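Researcher: Here's a chain I'd like modeled. Treat it as a single chain, no partners, no ligands.
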Amino acid sequence: MATPAIMFNVADKSTPCYYGPSQTALLLLDFHSIMVQRAGPKAPAALEVAAKMRNWAKAQDIQVLHCLININAMPFPTCKDADRLGGVVAAMKTSGGEEPAKLLEGDDDDVTFMRIPGYVSALKSLGLDEFLQKKGIKSLVLAGLSTSGCVMRTAIAASDAEYVVSVISDGCADPVEGMHDVIVGKVLNNRGYVTTAGEFQEGFTKATGRR
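Model: Modeled as a single isolated chain. Structure tokens:
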């Protein structure tokens, strides 16, 4: 993980604190209820962190974006195991496709983007990149389920798209034991920044002069 002095350097364009709240967005990735149930024993704790992170972001006037799978769409034709994935998505219509209520309280300013099943990166969500460009958002803060799925793929795609990427490590979880630690410790910190919710909140508010 990057040291606070590096990560929260307001003079460095490659760090999140170079950009103020209006140029920052919190992306909540795939927090479908069924994902919380299936993304390992740490998933409920990650949900709690994400909910608190959302409340903090809204207090800072940071845009909150919900990035979800469109359970009313079918996988694209060339998607591997499209039939199996289509069955999973169909089941989510009956149960587990919704987001937990704690991520929806007072969501007047939140925006939701959905992607076709089979796409893993949230940047494949219809209209998301255009929204970010129009709003002038340069820095993306990610929390989601699972670490090795949408979090990793979104982080890499966003980095390639020239966004500054910060992953909230305790706001993510993975169903495969040990995978979360490998991804955040060996992969994501090479493409962006990895930090806890508390560390990010403290560093951001100090660097930007907000409370």
